[in-house]
Amino acid sequence: MDNRPIGVFDSGLGGLTVLKEINRYLPSEDTVYFGDTARVPYGQRSKETIMKYTFQAINFLSTKDVKAIVIACNTATARALAEAQEKYDIPIMGVIEAGAKSAVEYTKNKLVGVIGTAATINSNAYNKAIEDMDSSVKVIGRACPLFVPLVEEGWANKDISSTAAHMYLDELVDQGIDSLVLGCTHYPILKRTIGEAVGMDIKLINPARETALKLKDILQENNMLNDKNEAANCKYFVSDINEQFSKIAGEFLKRDIKDIEKVEIQKY
């Protein structure tokens, strides 16, 4: 057994959707969350910059003696996961494989939509992952760059988000997709707005659940589960403290988020 915490990181608030599922399926596990709120969003940045930011986040989380790290950011997963796994001697997983698996299992007509940041969509990471699992599935990608700023501003359920959702998604609906992968961990916070835009006939796939279950499998296989009988603890760190983080995080996780600490992430 291993009672050290699990590290989780994202460009901002989005990784909380993964943290929520980790808390659900691994309720005894302590966690350390880092949100790179000073540099969100990652989606328009170069691969080199995203790799730099990812390595800095991992370096920071490593100072907290974490036993495994979840890159709870599709953009960082697409651009830096392979390099991070090669560089660090610690279990590191991303979120794309889990989303791809869910899409392949659900789709009936073999038409899957994927929405994400420009970096994620342009990387074709979901296309490659889905093709490796089932080459008969066609993937239609759509970058939705406004979604992350809308979530970070706390406007997930405002009219402006609904307008943006229709502008981004109406074309995907017209192309006949039967499932839509929320290929950015911010997007489940927009689930109601996205669902209203695409309609009830299209299944929204949130990779967070499968990511948490895969993490549980990895910890079990390596005898790394926490065996304590105490309530799990989560510590929160950000690169820039703002009121929105604690407010939205508290509303989404259904708990008070206190004692958020600021990190000078450039030092790592």
From TrEMBL:
GO BP term (any one): peptidoglycan biosynthetic process
Binding residue positions for substrate: 10-11, 42-43, 74-75, 185-186
PANTHER family for this protein: GLUTAMATE RACEMASE (PTHR21198)
Entry's family note: Belongs to the aspartate/glutamate racemases family.
Keywords recorded for this protein, A-Z: Cell shape, Cell wall biogenesis/degradation, Isomerase, Peptidoglycan synthesis
Record InterPro entries: Asp/Glu/hydantoin_racemase, Asp/Glu_race, Asp/Glu_racemase_AS_1, Asp/Glu_racemase_AS_2, Glu_race
Active site: 73, 184
One Pfam family from the record: Asp_Glu_race
Function in brief: Provides the (R)-glutamate required for cell wall biosynthesis.
EC number, UniProt record: 5.1.1.3
The protein's enzyme class: isomerase
Pathway the protein contributes to: Cell wall biogenesis; peptidoglycan biosynthesis
The gene coding this protein: murI
Gene3D superfamilies: 3.40.50.1860
Protein name: Glutamate racemase
Catalyzed chemical reaction(s): L-glutamate = D-glutamate
